[in-house]
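# nightly structure sweep
# worker-07 picked up a monomer target from the shared queue
# config: single-sequence mode, recycle default, output format = C-alpha cells
# input follows
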Amino acid sequence: MIFEQTTLKDNYLINLDLKEDERGFFARSFCEKEFSKQGLNTKWVQMNNSASKEVGTLRGMHYQREPGAEIKLVRCIKGEIWDVVVDLRDNSKTFGKWFGAKLSDKNHTMMYVPRGCAHGFITLESNSEVLYSVSCFYAPDTEGILLWNDPKVAIEWPIKPLIISDKDTKGDKIDKITSIKL
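# output follows
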C-alpha cells in the first residue's frame, strides 16, 4: 500500500500496490503492520456497504462525536465517487477545511477519514457501491450532519447533487457545530 498524506492532518489517500498478471491483480487493502507503521488505526469493528443507483446521489456530510467518534476507511468497489472529508476537530489548524478525491473501482484508492471529521460523497457513475470499515459501533445519539453546501466550508462538488436524503438536507452549518473534542 502507498500512503499519501492529504492537506488535512491524519487524512490519507491509500493506493493499493497491485500485483498484476494475465489473470488480473492481487493487492492488500489492509495490513496491521503497514497501518501501525503509519500511526493509523488497526481496529475495525464494523464494515458497511452503501449502494447508490443514480449519478448525483449525495450522502453526507456525517460525523460522530465522542464517545462514538469513528475513523473510517472508505473504498469504492463499483463505479466512481467524489469522496470528501471536512475537519471538525477542536484546536485543529485545518478546522472547517475540506479535502476531496475520486475513488473508483478503477483506481482502487481508499480514503482514511480521521476521528473528528465529517465525511460524505457524491456518485459520479450510476450503480456505485462503497465499502467502508469503521472503528466504533454506530451510535445514533452521537451522530451529527454538516450541511453539504455550507458556503463557509465551500466544498467544490464536481457535479450538482440530484438525490439527497431529507436527513442530509437538514444538516447544520459549520457555525452551529461545536468543534469535536477528542
